[in-house]
Amino acid sequence: MNAIRVHEFGGPEVMKLESVPDPTPGPGQVLVGVRAAGVNPVDLYIRSGIYPVKPSLPYTPGSDAAGDIKDVGPGVTSFKPGDRVYVAAPDAGTYAESVVTAASRVYPLPAAASYGQGAALGVPYAAAYRALFQRGNARPGETVLVHGATGGVGIATIELAHARGLTVIGSGGTDRGLALIRDHGADFLVNHGAPTHTEDVMRATSGRGVDLIVETLANVNLDGDLSMLSKHGRVVVVGSHDRVEIDPRMAMSREAAILGMSLSDATESDLVEIHAALIAGLETYVLKPVVRLELPLAHAARAHRALMEPGALGKTVLLP
Length: 320
Description:
Blueprint: E1 2-6, E2 15-19, E3 29-39, H1 41-48, E4 64-72, E5 84-88, E6 98-102, E7 106-108, H2 115-118, H3 121-135, E8 143-147, H4 152-163, E9 167-172, H5 175-183, E10 188-191, H6 197-204, E11 210-215, H7 218-226, E12 229-237, H8 248-254, E13 257-260, H9 268-283, E14 291-296, H10 300-307, E15 315-319
Parallel strand pairs: 8-9, 8-11, 9-10, 11-12, 12-13, 14-15
Antiparallel strand pairs: 1-2, 3-4, 3-6, 3-15, 4-5, 5-7
């Protein structure tokens, strides 16, 4: 089969399409024929060598995918060949025509979702759910600000919060992006490039501030986030590219909490909860992942470059 292989850490050009042996599932594993593979920012960090945990070289990138069960290993009774599924498995190596992974990291893909949408679930939607409900303790009736809402995690956060009965403020940098998040459930829109964006958020809450902020770029926004929180407000940090300086008094005066979030720290029971909710949301059309760019598997380098371009709207996937 064909797969993307990385023999050295570096820029996008280190990813090469190669022929590798077909994998075979072992006990408790399934073989999935990949129809679409999700491209996530963490894939770029790992490939470049800056991620704290590095895979052994050579390796195949990717943790998210969607496709069909081709074979099951001994002891697997939850799936059979032909089942539509999505994969959410760290280090699975989904930039390939087929992937073997534990059956516990594979989930039914409802008929309402395309393969491309299924490939958009593993990291973005799981991270959004964990940030909102398992770390941020979001409750119906609260107000949440989703900073950088036009990407995969942002759109997922808006949809999940809207479905749970929260008032959602979404930020974006372009008219097109703001229109997209409005269509996916944002109640209020703010342009985070505007000099008045903090005042716009406060105006949307009648001066009270937001109960929760899901922050995708903490190194840019965290200090300002603290000034927009209500009493006992929370910020959940989903992403950050660098260090940041904050004024602790902003958190002290509000008795606010700054919370980190990592999918790798989710327990088995956390994952069961997350994916049960995501499957239900797909089945009822509450969740509608946005796939903005589909590229052939051989164009993985282009997909990584596209992911770093400003103004990204939705998800990029590779098609084997």
